[in-house]
Write a sequence for this structure.
């Protein structure tokens, strides 16, 4: 069985992430979307919220499961018996960063390859940080995220506004 891991913070999960996942799901028997638990990074959504949103947004992709991890991605990949790490690319800057990470991961775990999936032209401009900024400033995000994520963004913003009072 060919297992791949698609790691990321996914804060929030976007239509670009869905696109990469749908397309890469045709290449592997099983894909594990692995949400990174990083205590040093301030996230808009909790780890549990991100896992829930991704599970709901990917129900239509039968060979996908959602999990979380902390620490080195190569340790998680090895634990899961995966043969590949999936990474989405939008820009040349993404490529430079991702290539360095892929080479480091290759050094740490030579038997696992990184598979780069180019973003569809419909989504290449979408980033989680851009979505968060647009949402926090009152901009529309419906075309950028799955419907369930849009709803959770609205709820989170309402919650943050109440806390700020």
């Amino acid at each position: 069985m060919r297992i791949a891991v698609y790691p990321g913070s996914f804060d929030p999960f976007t239509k670009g992430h869905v696109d990469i996942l749908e397309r890469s799901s045709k290449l592997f028997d099983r894909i594990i979307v692995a949400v990174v638990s990083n205590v040093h990074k301030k996230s808009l959504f909790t780890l549990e919220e991100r896992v829930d949103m991704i599970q709901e947004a990917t129900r239509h992709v039968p060979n996908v499961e959602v999990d979380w991890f902390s620490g080195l991605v190569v340790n998680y990949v090895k634990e899961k018996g995966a043969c590949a790490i999936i990474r989405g690319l939008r820009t040349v800057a993404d490529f430079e960063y991702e290539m360095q990470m892929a080479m480091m991961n290759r050094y740490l775990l030579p038997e696992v390859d990184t598979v780069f999936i180019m973003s569809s032209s419909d989504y290449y401009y979408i980033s989680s940080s851009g979505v968060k900024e647009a949402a926090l400033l009152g901009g529309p995000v419906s075309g950028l995220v799955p419907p369930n994520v849009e709803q959770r963004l609205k709820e989170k913003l309402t919650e943050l506004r109440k806390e700020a009072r």
